[in-house]
Amino acid sequence: MVRQGAKHLAFVSRSGADSPAAAQTVQELQAQGAKPLVLRADITKRGDLERALLEIDPSTPVRGVINAASVFRGGLFSKATVDAWREVVDTKVKGSLMLHELLKDKPLDFFVMTSSVASALGSSGQTNYSAANSFLDSLARHRHSQGLPAVSLILPAIFGIGHIAENRELEKAIQIKGMYGIREEEMLQAFEVAMTQQSSLPAGTDHIIVGLQPRRIGPAVRAAGAAMLSKENPRLNWVATVTAGQAVGSGSGGGSGGGGAEEVRTALARADGKEEAASVASHGLDSMIGAEFRNWIFREFQVNVPFQQLLAGSLTIAQLAGMICEQASS
């Protein structure tokens, strides 16, 4: 935002700028010419939020809101306590409602709430988190019905920063399970779209789902009358994954050296979250996952890849793409 010209930024946090990371962020923003204001408040408490908003200089009124607050408390629903449920839900539900109610009469350019794919797909052991994020999707629709800007930005796992970056085993587990994730740069691109003037987005864009393969969710999206931003908006074209039919049958060239191989390499690299020079086995393939991956290749490309080759540490994504194109075109 600062690189795009923003000068006045207000951050609301229960801990303020006490943590070393927060203090460093403030210093970095100041070095770039910005004027960050850190406000200590609990957004689930109306009084706290009202006091925080009053601390903002009237000469620089609030013109946009991003609520990215999250609390994670996993566990089986049957064993969850009321306090654990509320701690997770209130941060998103109460916090977003407070922001909506206190700022609904302000001329905001954007009102972005960070949601999760858990709201669309569910998440084992996180019914509270899934429910809280689902509420954000509905609140965005409610604001639209009142002529107010709002986007619920539905994100997948984000590798390299935040909660996942602090837990490397969690990141590895997510990748091994084949769950799709994005990196910081892609997340920022998604935020850029979500913060776009509402009139510039397709009509009815109250939530944006990032990180789900368009080919898989296309029928559901069309049935809901929604728009595939990954196809219609060039700023989200990184979301799209090349389909097997496009990669193999597009006529751009078969064999390991043709354009088709290049597209397959790109698709596989993005799906794996790896560079194309990385080995397939380095993604954490074991015998069970390897079997599923082999079946997926056969189902999508009608190519039979020997099981031993998939598990061999020498087979790279680029080599696998070439093998698929060569066999599919023969």
UniProtKB/TrEMBL annotation:
This is KR domain-containing protein. InterPro entries: ACP-like_sf (IPR036736), KR_dom (IPR057326), NAD(P)-bd_dom_sf (IPR036291), PKS_KR (IPR013968), PKS_NRPS_Biosynth_Enz (IPR050091), PP-bd_ACP (IPR009081). Pfam families: KR (PF08659), PP-binding (PF00550). Keywords: Oxidoreductase, Phosphopantetheine, Phosphoprotein. PANTHER family: FATTY ACID SYNTHASE, SI:DKEY-61P9.11. GO terms for biological process: fatty acid biosynthetic process; secondary metabolite biosynthetic process. Residues 1-164 form the Ketoreductase domain. Gene3D superfamilies: NAD(P)-binding Rossmann-like Domain. It comes from Stachybotrys elegans. It comes from the Eukaryota. One of its GO terms (molecular function) is oxidoreductase activity.
